[in-house]
Amino acid sequence: MKQDIQTGEDIRQLVDTFYKKAISDPVIGHFFTQVVQLDFDLHMPVMYSFWESVLLGQAGYKGNPMLKHLELNKKSPLEKYHFDRWMSLWEETLDELFSGKTADQARQRAANLRHLMEYKIGQSQNPNFIQ
Fold first, then answer.
1. pLDDT digits over 39-93, tens only?
2. I need a labelling partner for 97 at 20 to 30 A (CA). Which of 1, 14, 32, 87 fits?
3. Tens of pLDDT, residues 16-28
4. How many Cβ atoms sit within 10 Å of the Cβ of residue 4?
5. How distant, in Å, are the alpha carbons of 17, 45, 83, 90 from that of 21?
């Protein structure tokens, strides 16, 4: 039986495994490698910190994921099918590695984040949108 997400090391395993899939994915990989050309040495600790704060309640994350994705959308539009694929890879990774209450929260929080981002990106097309 798979264990639940309990530690920072579990978060790192989840995020690292997810990003390995996402970077090489034909649907969303280009966002990471071409559109933004992320410096993964800088980006990954931010992602660990984000998910540790969301799932383990650890303070330390400093950032604004919504603003980052609004900026990304200006460079290359984020469409529903991109979010579908991101969510599919996230859920696939969770299912491969973990099972339990926190893993279920990881799935739900990602879904909530996805819906909020889709909404805000849609709203950002409105000329009266305030960032």
1. 999 999 999 999 999 999 998 888 888 889 999 999 999 999 999 999 999 999 9
2. 32
3. 999 999 999 999 9
4. 14
5. 7, 18, 14, 9
